[in-house]
């Protein structure tokens, strides 16, 4: 029996967080149940020896494979293995894998247990937390999915040793997002440091990851089904998702551009006064702050955003660093502001 | 504002039942929200004039189309219509349609509202009730799905005017199932009457449908996630599903055969003494009671049943008419009993 670092209680489930932990202990974390691991080709190759003890379903790596076809293949693989309702599906990977693992576990046999081993900064501080899962449909991100909590998350920080530099940058976009909307003190810490510092100081990195894990969980636990505060986590994501899909930008780059755009709209509508500081801290962590996108195409995509309601789009804006709010903006007004 | 006949309260949702009602009132039942209807080609043709007022997604009819490909097509149709989270997807049809409508509404944009208009006896008394939905994967029935409650069900009994005789027979298999496991008085009523009687007496039919709707809801409300009593509703379904898929039998025929098999196992293991009465009432409503199936193939399929747990299968048996119980039977023993 392994004790979790912290347990979060949701409406119909509780989620155990193990941080720090080693993936070798997964069976113990799943209370001895039968495990099937889901991972991608890159991670399977990079950690072949450590994964050899597990029954692994391996899918191609990358967002283009986060779709209904891959989900159908994973389900076929579970059927071939005669996986039943006592089986736990464990997703080991970045957000693409943790999203698909959560979704498949949610629908296979109307729901089996799910565990997650986030392997990227982005998945550790954001994507794997909160039970939102799903796959893309064409250009539309997460158009199909569920809000369903996993049984546990296992944080094995040694997996970060093979994370490409570009993925470190991506992950810090979400960390900066958290700082912008909820944690002015963390924003100040990030201003004083840089990526190299965290990469060379495992203790500082672990502490930063845990701080972000707790911050996101506190928001999510208080608002599991996104009726209120959880919506603030979409800061930078409305325009960000549209740009990401249309131009195949990395997620962190896209939401960095989205955060700068939202900061400027905040300046316009709410008198937000720290756009420069937001731009500077993003640039300090290797993130782009500007991008020449096709405005007409973007507006078309925004109209299909899940946060649209009739002719208005719900947009997250900043009042000040560490304090965000949620505003309805008419599509025509948004077009002008962009 | 239309008042529901009865409202059932689930853990995270309440479900309104309107019985009797007319499909023309659907928009009012959905509190004025935007509706998209899902139906099949047969029903769309049979009720073209009545459906012309609605925005309909029409899919091919029949169980062979209850799969992930049809789900993907429905999702594409919702995207084309720019359906958002304020849209309600209403499934009008038999169990195939109500299952797919419930599933698509559960995953599209991580969940939109769902309404159901069951158009067959089977859907009215069973399939559309209780929130279980899903699609088949190859030979495996409902291998992918959710337990999620719809917002409302609308019972328009005039839809039964175009129901083929074979589908009446199918539906009565579930009614007899309900009587066997929970309602000895209804079993006695069914013994005294026949299909022609109910087809010629709308009031008796409506009363029978409502009785079954209430019976199933009472079981389901008490055990939403199938931890206990709800499992009894699987009486006849374990073997039934396997036969249905392998031999393409109608659902009612397959579970009729499954109920007779379960009654005989009950005789063997629990001293159940009314197998003959069960066979007689099934035959009285046009249902088959015997079928020469391939035992080896059946056992292979039973091993993939969702109710399997390791080497045992959970089987619903009868103690007496109106009283069922749930037993674990080892796969080897089951093979001998069949």
What does this 3D model show about the protein?
- The structure is a homodimer of 338-residue chains.
- Helix content of chain A is 47%, strand content 18%.
- The first copy, chain A, contains 15 helices and 12 strands.
- Chain A has a 7-stranded mixed β-sheet. A 3-stranded antiparallel β-sheet of chain A has the order 10-11-12.
- Chains A and B meet through α4, β8 and β10 of A and α4, β8 and β10 of B.
Summarize the structure.
With 338 residues, chain A is of the alpha/beta class.
Question: Features of this protein?
Answer:
three-stranded antiparallel beta sheet; alpha/beta; 12 strands; 15 helices; globular; seven-stranded mixed beta sheet; about 350 residues; homodimer
Oligomeric composition of the shown chains? homodimer
Question: How is the largest sheet of chain A built, in terms of strand order?
Answer: 1-2-9-6-5-3-4
Order of helices and strands of chain A: EEHEHHEHEHEHEEEHHHHHHHHEEEH
What percent of residues of chain A are in strands? 15-25%
- Are there runs of chain A of 5+ residues with pLDDT below 50, and where? none
